[in-house]
Specification:
With 84 residues, this protein is an all-alpha fold. The chain contains 3 helices and no strands. Helix 1 (18-31) crosses helix 2 (35-65).
C-alpha cells in the first residue's frame, strides 16, 4: 500500500502594515481558515496571473518579431467596439 507524502512546505516571513494584517485576519475568520490559507490562495492567484501575463507578452513579442501586426482596419474596428 502506497502512502501519500505531504507536500513540503516552507516558512516565509513578510512584513505588512497592521491594517493589512487586520484585513487578512478578518478574511481568514470569515472563511473559517487560517491566515496561511488566505495568503496561499492569494499568492496562487497572483502567480497564475503573472505567468499568464508574461506568456501573453512573450507571444506578442514573438508576433511582432515575425511581422504579424494588425492592419489599420482591424485596429479601427477594435477601437470602434470600445467607443474610442
Amino acid at each position: 500500500m502506497k502512502t501519500k507524502k505531504k507536500p513540503v512546505k516552507e516558512t516565509l516571513t513578510v512584513r505588512i502594515a497592521p491594517a493589512k494584517r487586520r484585513k487578512l485576519d478578518k478574511l481568514a475568520t470569515a472563511r473559517k481558515v487560517d491566515r496561511s490559507a488566505v495568503i496561499t490562495a492569494a499568492l496562487d492567484q497572483y502567480l497564475a496571473f503573472e505567468q499568464w501575463q508574461i506568456e501573453r507578452i512573450k507571444e506578442g513579442l514573438r508576433q511582432a518579431d515575425a511581422g504579424e501586426f494588425a492592419t489599420e482596419d482591424e485596429v479601427r474596428k477594435v477601437f470602434a467596439r470600445f467607443g474610442v
